[in-house]
Amino acid sequence: MTKTQFARYNIGQVIRHRLYAMRGVIFDVDTSFAGTDGEPVTNGTATGLIYRLFAEDDEVPYVASIAERDLEPDDSGEPVRHPGIGAMFEVGEAGAYRRRRQLIN
Q1: Has residue 40 been placed in a domain?
Q2: How many structural domains is the chain composed of?
Q3: Residue 52, beta-bridge partner list
Q4: pLDDT (tens digit, 9 = 90+) per residue, 4-22?
Q5: Is 7 inside any structural domain?
Q6: 56: exposed, middle or buried (Cβ count in 10 Å: 0-12, 13-18, 19+)
Q7: Residue 45 scores a pLDDT above 60
Q8: Would you list the DSSP string of the chain?
Q9: Is the pLDDT score of 47 beyond 90?
Q10: Cα gap 13→6, rounded to integer Å
Q11: Which residues, including other chains, have CB under 8 Å from residue 32's CB and lie 6 or more apart?
């Protein structure tokens, strides 16, 4: 029997890394991500969720895969400037990111 996992964060939510100067917009949540050695990434005794996001730091935009335990909400209200965001998300009235009904190539 598999254990149900509930994501703490949502697709389109702006988050930041707890330790590093990195923030981004979540575009996917992965329950089966394998680490660099092929083993699942663990959070204590249970496998943790991995969030894929359009990320930015002080230098460049990139795509990141970050464990849930290393993230926290970003309530700064500042937009995330990543070139991939426009193809997948629309920006709402309050600066929130919503998935596009049709993806743009």
Answers
A1: yes
A2: 1
A3: 28, 65
A4: 778 899 999 999 999 999 9
A5: no
A6: buried
A7: no
A8: -PPP---SS-TT-EEEESSSS-EEEEEEEESS-B-TTSSBPEETTEEPPEEEEEEE-SS-EEEEEEEGGGEEE--S-PPP--TTHHHHEEE-TTS-EEE-SS---
A9: no
A10: 15
A11: 40
- The position carrying tokens 């997948």 is 88
| DSSP conformation class of 34 | B
Residue 6 lies in a domain: no
Domain span including residue 50: 14-99
Q: Which of 14, 85, 84 is nearest to 51 (CA)?
A: 14
Q: Tell me the pLDDT tens digit for each residue of 84-96.
A: 999 999 987 777 8
Residue 8 lies in a domain: no
Nearest CA among 88, 82, 81 for reference residue 104? 88
For tokens 């029997």, name the residue: 1
CATH number of the domain enclosing 51: 2.30.30
Q: Largest alpha-carbon pair distance within the chain?
A: 44
